[in-house]
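Entry 14. Structure prediction run on the chain below.
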Amino acid sequence: MAISLGKLGVWQIFTELNPDLAVELEGLGYGTIWIGGAPGDLRLAEQLLDATREITVATGIVNIWKYDATTVADAFHRVDAKHPGRFVLGIGAGHREMNDDYRKPYQALVDYLDALDAAGVPQSQRVLAALGPKVLELARDRAAGAHPYLTTPEHTRHAGEILGDALLAPEQKVVVDTDPQRAREAGRDIVGRYLQLSNYTRNLRRHGFTAEDVTPPGTDRLVDALALHGAPEQIAEGIGAHLRSGADHVAIQVLGDLLPGYRALAAALR
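Output returned:
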């Protein structure tokens, strides 16, 4: 990949991100900020880049059903011209349960990539949200790589075998809290929401979890894997498991107080 993401980044939903936080995260040494649920006008990405000096900004993801490819391509060129080499466009097909017009998502992704090609958005600066083998192959062949969400090191290992030399940048939720019950409650509150979405539950079943595990709100075993908790050093070990399994970069999503969590983890991850 032409753009450097660094080994570790930050993933937060777009409503929680702002320029001041971006400056803090850059100062802590994180390599990339991933904008969850990114608006397709890319104005927030531009604001985060304006406020910082070197950190990469990526969308994780722009939903292809919400924003047409021409609009997104125009926004990409605006941002990239202003901040060359610092922006990555992540796109994905979202979820059947959350998009009324969800038909043939694989073909929709192909068509969207065709439109981005026609608009001159380089393959080296785009990634796909990918879980299953078919979309992982598409990410390998038509993008710089894949940005899987709600996965484990077991999935990372499997995805890496498909992607080969292409980028693999999974997301990992964490709760910086040494009280297991309190941390698990915080993790389950978020993880349980995703267990309503069939693409996630199918993927988790493919990689070692049972029907009971993925039944909302999720078993302790599932929650502990998808929302690591404990002292920063314990969490750092869990993040390292993705890297040892073949990830090029891990996008860390802190659940709870953001800055204290990212500060504690930055020290442990050094």
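The first helix runs from residue 19 to 28.
Filed with the rest of this week's runs.
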